Amino acid sequence: MNNLKDINLLIGRIIIGIYFLIFGAIPKIFSYDFMFTYMSEHDVPFVHITLILTIIIQFICSIGIIIGWHSRVSALILALLTLIINYYMHNFWDMAAGLEQQHEMQNFIKNIGIFAGLLILSATQPGKFSLKSY
Description:
The protein has 134 residues and is mainly α. It has helices at residues 2-30, 32-41, 47-67, 71-89, 99-122. The longest helix has 29 residues, at 2-30.
């Protein structure tokens, strides 16, 4: 039974880590100007600093989760970052009713699910297949 738990934790860590790496940090690096403008349009404070910190956090924490290096802390940091991103970038409550508002609400709710998964991960050990540092 422990092997199944360890395998599930490994697969889950890899999937959520890849999500933040491939759909978080990397697109922000290669589309920095677009992301800067997008964040500015959403009234994110101190956009240059915020964007750089977001890239660094998403990159380091996603790798940490994947390899099981400080995965609990990394998951908690990404959970908090996800809440902040949700507030600023998916603020459907400030939009007129319509397709765009529905899309942003869907992204907001999806991110709440990701937030929940990160909280669960932050409450567990990284599993047998990790560097065993937390």
